Amino acid sequence: MAEEKGEGPEDVDTIGVYVGGRNIDGERHGEGWAVLPNGDFYQGCYCRGMRSGKGLYVFKNGARYEGEWRKAMKYGVGTMTYPDGSRYEGDWRHDLKQGFGAYYYPNGDIYEGAWFKGKRHGLGTYLFAEYQIKFMGTWVEGAIEGPGQIIYPRVRYHGSWLRGKPKGPGCFVFDTNCMQHGFYLLMKDPALEEFGEGEEEKEDKEVKEERQEEGGEEEVEIDETMGKISIWRARNVTAYMAEFLPPEPVPLPIHDSIPSLSEESIVTDIIQFEIPSVAAEEEGVDDSDSWLMHRQQFLEETEQKG
């Protein structure tokens, strides 16, 4: 999709159509609008020939991005609406979702939390709209990983996940003020073994192990969740006691090797980056429903826990 990459500088008058300000070097600078050769449309701020500041970019496939730009890339706070009706509102860096943001899916599902290099990564919550079930925990490179909890209408589960599947000790907490303790085991999916796929996975694992022993192949990480399902094994039931709950999820450390553009950005009297307001836009609107309020709380909590 075109939105995954920056479109680059637009400083050639003979390519596309441009109406707006220019600097003394003839580069697009200030406010203006442009129709690109591929049919895309942009209206907003430029700096030295590149989109910088606030602007609206409409893709010919129907997608649109409205928010902040730096050096022709989505950078800052903005909203991306996709052709299928899904929408992302939140932080961007180098044309990728990064920071805190909320993604609204066409089926009504909502993810709200941390992003890193375009993937869900860190603390977040995911609402399954059809069943009104919410997951709260951590993601690693787009997959649920580590401690978390699932909140059902009358019960919640506390435990750990491995590549999107519950695994290890955990407990169900019921609204009757009691707890069921046990653990999730990863078992081979009977539906796969019915077609012989279980044996193929076993043979493939044995071949990889033999090659590693012979030194003919580098160590390959084996996905222990592949072809398996999680099975709950209950052990006992007790009264509710908070000290029996598994560890809570914590923010993940982020190691970003991509240099920041903030120091290189040029701010003029025309091109300014305003801090987004977290106040409700209309009187009577619940602040808790604002993703910007959640974003501020998320950043404060992350800083405190870090």
TrEMBL record:
Superkingdom as given in the UniProt entry: Eukaryota
**What's an example GO cellular component term for this entry?**
nucleus
| Entry-linked InterPro entries | MORN
The record ties this protein, via SMART domains, to: MORN
Query: Pfam families in the record, alphabetically?
Result: MORN (PF02493)
Give the Basic and acidic residues compositional bias ranges: 204-214
Record flagged with keyword Transmembrane: no
Residues in coiled coil: none
**Gene3D superfamilies noted in UniProt:** Histone H3 K4-specific methyltransferase SET7/9 N-terminal domain
Q: What is this protein called?
A: Radial spoke head 1 homolog
